[in-house]
Write a structure and sequence with these properties.
Elements: E1 2-8, E2 13-19, E3 25-29, H1 35-45, E4 48-53, H2 59-62, H3 65-72, E5 76-78, H4 83-87, H5 89-95, E6 110-111, E7 117-120, E8 123-129, E9 138-143, E10 147-152, E11 155-156, E12 159-160, H6 170-181, E13 189-192, E14 198-199, H7 200-206
Parallel strand pairs: 3-4, 4-5, 5-6, 10-13
Antiparallel strand pairs: 1-2, 2-3, 7-8, 8-9, 9-10, 11-12, 13-14
């Protein structure tokens, strides 16, 4: 399995490409900006995007969804609890004082729920519903040589997602992390929505928000 992650957009959202070498199919997770970069990376890897999924729908994680879908024809997926947030992207930008127009929203092809699986060739990304950062926040667990979890803005190296935005809840977020993520093996690689990678074991032992 090919696993590529790289920052996109002016807030540095980590876009992730999960690619199956045999079929050439790929899942693009959180196309938050720089669509040309995302599409060029797919082309360089010899992959075609067959699914676009979102850990949540804050503007910095969905900024290139329209362009990537338009270029690839891939179905777009998110949790239904985040649909209103996605459709209100202009209000998000205005609230943050961003002097720009929101990109055109796309039709959502599939609403993901806990226990679903998103497939691309032999890749199976299991869906974990982890509300707290937003009500529709999702994480995606995949098996490679070691387990991987794409944590979005739910868990970071040494921190957790903020809960002072639309639909945020600190109790829900802590419950999501402790019940859905800390139950994963310590060696699980965590690819967060921003910043460096970490492991479940490292966060269990050292993350100040998860102690006690």
């Amino acid at each position: 399995m090919i696993v590529e992650h790289f920052p996109v957009g002016f807030l540095g959202c980590n876009c992730v490409i999960l690619g199956d070498e045999e079929s050439g199919e790929a899942i693009v997770v959180d196309p938050g900006g720089d669509p040309e970069t995302i599409l060029a990376r797919l082309e360089k890897l010899g992959l075609r995007c067959t699914a676009i999924v979102h850990t949540h729908t804050h503007f910095d994680h969905v900024g290139s969804t329209h362009d990537v879908q338009h270029a690839t024809g891939a179905p777009t997926m998110l949790h239904e609890a985040d649909l209103e947030l996605y459709q209100g992207m202009q209000a998000q930008l205005d609230a943050f004082g961003m002097p720009m127009r929101a990109p055109e929203a796309v039709d959502i092809d599939r609403f993901l729920v806990e226990g679903d699986t998103v497939r691309a060739g032999a890749i199976e990304a299991d869906v974990l519903h982890t509300p707290g950062h937003t009500q529709g926040s999702l994480c995606f667990r995949v098996d490679d040589d070691r387990p991987i979890v794409l944590a979005g803005d739910t868990l970071f190296q040494g921190s957790i997602g903020r809960t002072d935005l639309w639909g945020g809840s600190m109790p829900e977020l802590l419950s999501s992390v402790k019940t859905k993520l800390l139950s994963l093996p310590d060696e699980t690689l965590v690819i967060a929505g921003h910043g460096p990678t970490t492991t479940i074991g490292e966060e269990r032992a050292t993350n100040p928000f998860l102690q006690g």
